[in-house]
Amino acid sequence: MANFEVRAIGRVESPLTELESAPRQADEGAPGAWLVFEPEVLEGLRGLRAGDDIIVLTWLDRARRDVLSVHPRGDTSRPLEGVFNTRSPHRPNPIGLHRVGITAIDGSRVRVRSLEALDGTPIIDVKPVLSEDIGQR
Q: Is residue 131 part of a domain?
């Protein structure tokens, strides 16, 4: 297998600190949070605005990487599923995918709503949500 180097471009600042008590999905009561970016990537924020929807990719640094099957949502009454058929954070490459809306931008800090990532979670990328008109961005 090939190896790849990924570096954090920032970190999440969130009131969520415990994996066990964090919502599993954003629509399950995830709080607002700050995305705090490293100085060397600030140029990459150019053009982002409050009101934009973005995809935030995170490295789920507290997830297990040796898990290949899970009971969906931790419910042992449900049959085991492969992790690639679930949103489980525990997987060989624990990349988090979060669609959020920007509510404010303050220098190197971007405020977003409904982010289920834990405080300190590394940010590895940000991408715009494409509109129906694919050529728009």
A: no
Could you tell me where the beta strands, DSSP code E, fall in 52-91?
53-59, 69-70, 81-82
Question: pLDDT by residue (tens digit) across 98-133?
Answer: 999 999 999 999 999 999 899 999 999 999 998 765
How much is the pLDDT for 16? 83
Q: Which of 31, 32, 34, 42 is nearest to 11 (CA)?
A: 34
> In the chain, how many domains are there?
1
Q: Quote the pLDDT of residue 24.
A: 59
Q: Which residues of 59-96 are buried (b: 16+ CB within 10 A; e: fewer)?
A: bbeebeeeeeebeeeeeeeeeeeebeebebbbbeebeb
- 77: CATH: 2.40.30.70
Domain enclosing residue 77, as ranges = 10-125
